Automatic annotation (TrEMBL):
<keyword id="KW-0560">Oxidoreductase</keyword>
<dbReference type="GO" id="GO:0016491">
    <property type="term" value="F:oxidoreductase activity"/>
</dbReference>
<dbReference type="InterPro" id="IPR002347">
    <property type="entry name" value="SDR_fam"/>
</dbReference>
<dbReference type="InterPro" id="IPR051122">
    <property type="entry name" value="SDR_DHRS6-like"/>
</dbReference>
<dbReference type="InterPro" id="IPR036291">
    <property type="entry name" value="NAD(P)-bd_dom_sf"/>
</dbReference>
<comment type="similarity">
    <text>Belongs to the short-chain dehydrogenases/reductases (SDR) family.</text>
</comment>
<protein>
    <submittedName>
        <fullName>Short chain dehydrogenase</fullName>
    </submittedName>
</protein>
<dbReference type="Pfam" id="PF13561">
    <property type="entry name" value="adh_short_C2"/>
</dbReference>
Amino acid sequence: MKILIIGASGTIGKAVYERLSGDNELITANYNDGDVRVDLGDKDSIKKMFEQVGQVDALVSAAGLANFVPLDAHSDQDFELALNNKLMGQVNLLRVGRDYINHGGSMTLTSGVLSRQPMPGSASISMANGALESFVKAAALELEQLRLNVIAPAFVKETMVMMGMDPDWGISAADTAKVYELAVKGEMHGQTLDVAAHQ
C-alpha cells in the first residue's frame, strides 16, 4: 500500500512509520521536514501536500497541535490553536484529501484520551478531541469510497518520561502504533479506537 503519514516525526508518528514499514510505500509529511511539508493549520498547505503526493491507499494523521493551559489562563490563541490545527486541520485532511484516497482506502485521524478522561489544563485539547470524534462518526455516514476512523491514544510512555511524569500507567508508542495498523488494515468505519481498550 502507498500510505501517507502526517506527523511522522513525532513520538507516535515514528512508531507508526516503523510498524507500517516493510512492504508498504510510506510517504512522510511534517511541518519542518519529511518527504513533503504541511501545516495543518493552513488549508492551502494541505492542498499543496496532496497535489505533491498524489493518490494514496491510506492516510494516517498523528499530528495536531493544542496547548495544556489552566482554564483561567486559556487565551483566545490557545483555543484557536486547538480549533484551527488539532480539529479543523484534521477535518480538512478529509475535506481536501478524500479524492486523493484510492477507492476502498482509509483515513485515520488522531484525537486522544482527554476527550473522555479530561484533566486540569486540558480544556481546549479535550474540546478538540471530542469534536473530532463526533465529526468522524457523522462524516463516515456519508462516505462510501473510503473508511474513516479516529485513534484515541492514551498517554504515551515516552512522552511521559520527557514531561517528567511517572510512565508506569502509560502505553508505549510501539503498542499505540499497533492500533493505527489495525485501523489501516481492518474493516472498521466511523469508529473511535481507544488505544487503552486494545491492550
